[in-house]
């Protein structure tokens, strides 16, 4: 082949891939980048939570309740809950996209994952807020 | 090349340096890579431990909701977590979580452009395994000390 032909093949994406709308949508790195951002934020939160949870092993109800209700712990728990479920939902989405080979299975599984993650995150956040608020009220 | 059966195929088609189109394997492909290699074994383990941690979050949700509900709900979650199955699950979750965390640091370093050569990849992979073992044992030491006191 002539040198010019090499130069034309500057992309690994096929023309068909591009016309099908699978090319750049100017937001292609957003999902990837948010996965990195949430992972970086979760690093210190994981360290903190793992050590805290380990030291709460075998703790009676009142001790655990008061630990969750402490303002500092409640704030960090809420941050961890939001980030953890965001990171989980986008991680599971990538796995589903890689292994589900039918479009409806893929879309359905991703939507179901997101719905479950949202509901569990809201339930966890409500639990933390309930404990933190009741601690002040009582 | 045949007609596309699957929308993912668009991302699997590449060109060789002479311009001829070729099919590329999906990544991480389960049949193409030798899972006995440390690199590919740790790669798929990153995903598997991520899924395990996703399931482990259910335990966190249960623990938080039970504590918000009251002493009897807290007693049930405590009973489960200190049962044989609960302890086994929590121990596995601890190991999976530390692996995913340490392997995640490795990935962040790669993304920043560090440690991507083959010898460093093997070396950092071994450190991830050692670190996982050490961190898991330390976490459980803290838990056992807290439990005993």
TrEMBL record, chain A:
Its cofactor is heme. Signal peptide: none annotated. One of its GO terms (molecular function) is heme binding. The chain crosses the membrane at residues 41-63, 75-96, 108-133. The keyword Iron-sulfur does not apply. Gene3D superfamilies: Fumarate reductase/succinate dehydrogenase, transmembrane subunit (1.20.1300.10). Part of an enzyme complex containing four subunits: a flavoprotein, an iron-sulfur protein, plus two membrane-anchoring proteins, SdhC and SdhD. This is Succinate dehydrogenase hydrophobic membrane anchor subunit.
From TrEMBL, chain B:
One of its GO terms (biological process) is tricarboxylic acid cycle. It is found in: Membrane. The heme is bound between the two transmembrane subunits. GO terms for cellular component: membrane. This is Succinate dehydrogenase cytochrome b556 subunit. Keywords: Heme, Iron, Membrane, Metal-binding, Transmembrane, Transmembrane helix. SUPFAM superfamilies: Fumarate reductase respiratory complex transmembrane subunits. The chain crosses the membrane at residues 44-65, 77-99, 127-148. Belongs to the cytochrome b560 family. It comes from Roseicella aerolata. Heme binds at residue 100. InterPro entries: SQR/QFR_C/D (IPR034804), Succ_DH_cyt_bsu_CS (IPR018495), Succ_DH_cytb556 (IPR014314), SuccDH_FuR_B_TM-su (IPR000701). Part of an enzyme complex containing four subunits: a flavoprotein, an iron-sulfur protein, plus two membrane-anchoring proteins, SdhC and SdhD. The complex can form homotrimers. The keyword Transmembrane applies. Its main location: membrane. It is a multi-pass membrane protein. Membrane-anchoring subunit of succinate dehydrogenase (SDH). Its cofactor is heme. Gene3D superfamilies: Fumarate reductase/succinate dehydrogenase, transmembrane subunit. It holds the Pfam family Sdh_cyt. Residues 1-25 are annotated as: Disordered. The keyword Nucleus does not apply. GO terms for molecular function: electron transfer activity; metal ion binding.
